[in-house]
Specification:
With about 425 residues, the protein is α+β, with helices and mostly antiparallel strands. It is about 40% helix and about 20% strand. The chain starts with a helix and ends in a 5-residue tail after the last strand. The protein binds one RNA strand of 86 nucleotides through helix 3, helix 4 and strand 6.
Length: about 425
Amino acid sequence: MIDIKELRSRPAELKELIERKNVRVDFERILGLDETRRELIGETEKLKAERNAASRDIARLQKEKQDASAAIAATRETGDRIKALDQELKALEEEQRQLLLAIPNAPHPEVPVGNDEEANVFVREWGEKAPAPEWLKDHLSWGEAEGFYDFPRGAKLSGSGFPLYTGPGAKLERALIQFMLDLQSGENGYTEVSTPFLVNSASMTGTGQLPKMAEDMYYCERDDLWLIPTAEVPITNIHAGEVLDAKKLPMKFCGYSPCFRREAGSYGRDVRGFLRTHQFNKVELVKLARPENSYEELEKLLNDAESVLQKLGLHYRVLTLCSGDTSFASAKTYDIEVWSPAEGKYLECSSCSNFEDFQARRANIRFKEGSGKPRFVHTLNGSGLATSRLIVALVEACQQEDGSLLLPEVLRPYLGTERLRGPAA
RNA sequence: GGAGGAAUAGUCUAAUUGGUAAGGCAGCGGUCUUGAAAACCGCCGGGUUAGCGCCCUUGGGGGUUCGAGUCCCCCUUCCUCCGCCA
C-alpha cells in the first residue's frame, strides 16, 4: 500500500513512477477524499474534546451532589452529532483504503523503463547451454514415454493443468524439493517453515494478492479461505501485526508449498506439459529486512536462488525486469531463467523481488530500534525454486542417448543412484 | 459440535457501585564516570498539527450511557473439559 502521506506530499512524482508500470492511476479522487477526511477529523475531535470536558464536569457536579441534568441533556446532543460524523468518517476512510489498496507499488527509480518483457535487461549468465543432439526428446515426450509423469490421468483427476508425477518422476521431484530445502536452510542460512496452504483474506491482502488478483486464485467459499498461489503469502504474513526487534533483522525464511493458480485468461499460452499449470511445487525464500539495506539483501537473495541451479549444473541467465513487467507489489524484480535445450529457449523459474514497505504497510509488519518509533520493515521474496520448470530443464540437460537420466552429483544421495530410468525401459 | 474461562501498548501486570488506562521489566538517549555498573532524568501504540495541543487506542465489531477496560449482544483467537476423529 502506498503511504497516503507520501502521496499527499509528492503526487506528481509518484504518479509518474507508478505509470512506468504501464498502468494509469488517478490520484485526484483519493486526494480529495483525504482532504475531506482530515477536515472531518478536525470537526469530530473538537466535539469529542467538548464532550470529554463536559463529562468531567458532570462527574464533578454529581460528586458535589449538585443537579447535572441540564449538562447531561446538552451533552447528549453533542454525542449524537459525534456519532453521525464518525459514521461519515468511517465510510470515507474505508473508501480511501479501498482506493489505496488498488494502487500498485512504485518501481524503484533505477528500474529500466519499458512496457513488456522485450525491455527486460540482461544482468549475467552462468554456465553453458547443454547440447541438443538429434536424439534429444523434449521433457513431455521423454517423460511420458519413460513413465515419469502422466498428464492425461492428471487431467482425469482434476482437469488440464494438474500434473500427475509417477514412479521415478515423483521421486525426482521429491528429491529436488528436499535438496533445495536442505540447501536454503543449511549453508544459505534460512529458517525452514512449513505453513498452512489455505489462508484467510487478511493474509492475501497483506501481501497484495487481494483485492486485485481474486480472479486468479482458488477460493473456498464455505470457509472463506483461499488456496495459496505461492508460499510467499503465509510466510510473509507470519509476523503480520507485530513489532519486531531490530536486532533480529534480517529474518530469513524458506518453505515448501504447492502453489495453486487459476491462470484465468491465459489459456492457450505455454500449455504444454509443465510450462504453465494450475498446481506446482515450489520452495520459497522470504526476508524481512531493514529499509537501509534491503537492496543488498535482494542481491543476496538472488544469489541464494541462483545457487540451486549452479549446484545442479544448469545454465541460466538473470534479467532485471523492466517497469512494465514488474508485478503489482514489487519495486524491483530479477528473474532467473533456466535454459531448456529441447525448447531452445529460457524458462522463468524464479522471481526475486524487493517490495520495500508496500507489503509491510498492508500486513502491518514493523520493527523498532532503540527509542525510535516503530517503522515498517522491507519484505523480499524469491522462488528458490519452482520444480516444474526446473524439471523441464533438468530432464533435457541430463538426458542420455539411451533414455536414462545422468543425475547431477547433488541429487544422487537423495535418489540413491547416479542414473534414473523409467519403468518403461 | 457442546460447556466453562481468558485476551490491557515490545513484554509482564494493575485499575472502587461505570468517572476518562497506574506501574514493573526490557530497550534507547542523557546526567555522572577513566570505562562500566548503580542511581537519577527523559523517551518508548496510532491519527491530526508548523508547533503547543487535541483526539483515538484495553483481541475485532455493534449497543446502553453525559461518560465503558468495566454492563449487554455478535465474532475471532487461546486455555480447560466433554463429544467426534487421522
